[in-house]
Amino acid sequence: MSVPNHAPMPGRPVPPMFSPGRIWTLAAATFTQLVRMRTFYFLLFFAVLVFGMSNVNLLYTAEQQLSTIRGTSFGAMWLFAWLFAVTATAVVIPRDIEDRTLYTILSKPVPRVEYLLGKFFGVLLVITVALGAMLLLSGLVLEFRKAGLIAETRSYLEQSPDLTPADIQGQLDAISSEGFHPRLFTAAWIILLQAAVMAAATILVSTFASSSLFTIIVGIAFFLIGHGHRIAVDYWSEGGATNNWLAWAAKVVPDFHIFNVHEKIVAGSTASPLVMAEITAYAGVYCVVYLLLGWYMFSDKEF
Amino acid sequence: MSGSSSTPPSSPPAIEARELTKVFPLQWSKGYMVAVDKVSFTVNAGEVYGLIGPNGSGKSTTMKLVLGLMAPSLGTTKVFGLSTSDVRARSEIGFLPENPYFYKHLTGAETLRFYGKLCGLRGRSLQERIGELLELVDLEHARDRRLAGYSKGMLQRIGLAQALVQRPRLVVLDEPTAGVDPIGSREIRDLILRLKQEGISVFLCSHLLEQVQEVCDRVGIIFQGKLRREGPLDELTAIENQTEILLQEASPALISKIQALIQAEGADLLSLGRPRTTLERLFLDEVERGLADARSAGVHSAEPSPPPRP
Ligand SMILES: Nc1ncnc2c1ncn2[C@@H]1O[C@H](COP(=O)(O)OP(=O)(O)OP(=O)(O)O)[C@@H](O)[C@H]1O
Ligand SMILES: [Mg+2]
User: Fold this and answer.
1) Of B8, B50, B194, B204, which sits most exposed with the smallest number of CB within 10 A?
2) Enclosing domain of residue A92
3) Which of B60, B64, B175 to mutate to test the pocket of ligand 1 (most atoms within 8 A of CB)?
C-alpha cells in the first residue's frame, strides 16, 4: 500500500457544537426530498383556480372582481401553507426513522437539535418558495385583469357625456387601487408565520407520536383548537371558570385569531409596522417554545 | 498479525465498553428483556474486532450503544477516550447500519455529498473525496443514478462509502456483507483489510464466520446478550494439543511410513484425507473461470482469431 488515502486527516478540526452549515445541509436535503415527492404539483391547481377566478365576472363590479381574485388566491395560499406545514412535517421525520436514514445522520457529528431545525427549516423553505410562486402568479393575474378592466371601464365611461375627465379618473383610480399592492407581501408573511407555528407544533408532536397519521390528526386538531381558542376562553371566563389549568391550556396553544389579520390586509386595510412586529414576535415565541420542547423530547429518544 | 503493536501505547482504545447493559421494557406486559447484559470489551486502535452471535443475541444493540444512538441502561462506552454523546467522538466514527437505506431520491454522488457536508466537508476536497469513494466501492458507473434503483449490494457499498466519507478513525459495520454476493463480499473483506493497513480500527459483526476469521484480530462471541468468549482470534481458535501436517504430492508409501512413525511414537492420528476447499472458494473459482471464459470468448468474437501457425 503506497499512499494511505483513507487514513484520518492529521489535525482534524474540532467540529463546532452548533453549525448553521449543517442545519442548512439538512434543510436543503429536506427541501429536495419534498420537491422530489412532487409536492409542487399543487401549484398547477392553484394556477387553474386563480385563472378560473379571473374569468368569472357575472354580477360583479370591476372592484369586486379584483377583490374576489385576491381573496380566493390568498385563501388558497393560507389553506395550502398551514395544511402543508402539518402534513409534510408529519411525514418527514417518521420516514427517516423507517428508512433508518436517521441512524446514519445521527451517527455523523450532528447534534439532534440541528436535525430537528433542519427539518423545520426545510419544510418552511418549501412553503416560502411555494408562497412566493403563488404570490407572483396571483400578482400577475391581478395586474393583467386590472389592465383589462380599466380599458373596458374607460371606453364605457367615455361614452357618457355627463362625466368630467376627473370623474372618470376617480373611478379608474378606484379600480386601480384594487390591483396588486405591496401590502399583500405582509399578508403572505403572516400566512408564512402561521405555517411556521404549525410546523413547529407538528415537529413537537412527531417526536412522541407513533405514526404520521396520528401526527397529522393531532396537528389538525391543534389548528382547530387554536381557532376555537378565543371562543373557548370567552365562554369559560363568562362562566367564571377561569381556573389555573385553563389559563395554562390557553397559553399552550396560540390564539390563531391573531393571524387572521391577513384577511383584512387582503381586503384592503394595512397593518402598522408595530402590529406586524407583534405578530412576528408572537409566532417566533411559539416556534421557539415548541422546538425547545421537541428537542427535549427528541434528545433521549431511541431508535 | 495484530495491528495494535504499530500504534503508540499512549493512544486511547478505539472503543472501550464497560459493563454495557440495555434493558427493553416489553410493550404489552410488565416484563422486560435484557438485550445486552454487562458486556465489556476493548477495541484497540488499529484493530479489527468481530462480534459474532446468533440472530437476536444483541449485536446491533451493542453497536447502537457504542454509537450513542441508544443510551445504555447501565455501563459506559468511550470512543477514543471521549463519550459518544460528544460531537467530536462522532466525527471519528463511520457507521454502516444493518440493511442500510438512504434517501431514495438522491443519487449516489448526492448521497455522499450530503453526508460529507454533515461532517463539515466542503468544496473541492469534498468533490474529490466523493470521486475517490465511488471508485473505492466500485460505483462510479452508478454515480448519477438515484438510490431507488440501486440493488441491495449497491446500497451496502454506498453505505460503506458514506461511513468512510470524513476519514474516520473507527468504522462500525453492522453485517457489512449481508445480501452481498460472494465476489462483492470478498471485495468488502479486502476493503476492511485495507482500512486496517491504514491504521483504521474496525468494529464489525457478521454471520459469515469464515470472513470474520479472515479479517479480525479479536473476536467476541455474544449469546443472549452476554459476551461468552472474547480474545485474540489466534488464541481462540488454536487447539493447543493438536498439530496439522499438510503434504503435497505424497506417495502412499510415504503416508504409510508416517502412519507407522506416529504409532511408534504413541500419538493418535485423528484424521487423514484430502483437504477440502471451502464452498465459498469453489464458488469463487467457478465464477472467476466463467469470467475468464467469457472474456476470451468476447475477444474471439470481436476480432478474427489468428490463423493457425504452420
Ligand atoms: N427497540 C427495541 N425494543 C425492544 N426490543 C428490542 C429493540 N431492539 C432490539 N430489541 C431486542 O433485543 C434483542 C437483540 O436485538 P439485536 O437487534 O441487537 O440482535 P442482533 O444480534 O443484531 O440480531 P441479528 O443477527 O438478527 O441482526 C432482540 O431480542 C430484539 O428483539
Ligand atoms: Mg443485527
Assistant:
1) B8
2) 20-298
3) B60
